[in-house]
Amino acid sequence: MSGLHIVVCGSIVPDPLQTLEPVTTPAGPGLKNEMMLPAILDPWAGHALFEAANLAKSVAGSKVYLVSLGPKAKLQQVMMTIGQKAPFELVVADGPASGFTDAAEVAAELAAAIEAIPGLDKSQLLVFGGWQSASRGAGATLQMLGERLGITDQFQGVDEIKMQADGSFTVLERIEGGSYQLSSCAGTPAVLGWATGNLPEPPNNPQIGMANMRLIMPALQKAKPAKVSTGEVSFVAVELPKQVRETRVVKDMALEEMAKEIVDWIRG
Length: 268
Description:
By secondary structure, the chain is an alpha/beta fold. Helix content is 29%, strand content 25%. The protein is built from six helices and 13 strands.
């Protein structure tokens, strides 16, 4: 089989170790001091990127693209680290990385960025992304992106892909009840929303980093503005969930009674 073109869609999110406080801004809902918060690559997108790089190594002639919608100033900081993990070519759409953005508008911008990649072979295309997200957890962005690209073979909750010599592949997907579904696909193109995969985070490799940076900086400089908003959604208010703690100490209570009381409390 000929080389694959693997496009990984992933953006940045605030470091989860930071305290995130939602606020209402003139442009809509957002996070307090969002531009000051340290950022990381979305963890689910990270799994997709590492799986893409591993797959590209096993299929000669393959190429990996990382398509990211986010503020290019913050992307540059994150790429200094991610660029040392795996070889890829960066494609940037300069816009908000907020979790309040409309999934349909995000999908439209990502589709436009992918369509504009020079020399992209759609017949050999695999679109990777996170099944979930630490920011855009709508669960719909990848699906709408695939439809815009005309790709109807889509798999969500993927933990493994195995390519065959004839270009076909099998996909291991998570389904309900902690079980897996093994699917077969005759070939590309396809969209895969990754869960956690099977690979650890690669170690930093300065040589990969230097090779990537030669392409990352020009990609950031020529990034086109992306018009992404909250769409037609109106947010009345944004606030942190309230913490509720109700504690009783009871001795010698039967497990059945304890379970019933917990269920009654949840329903109430």
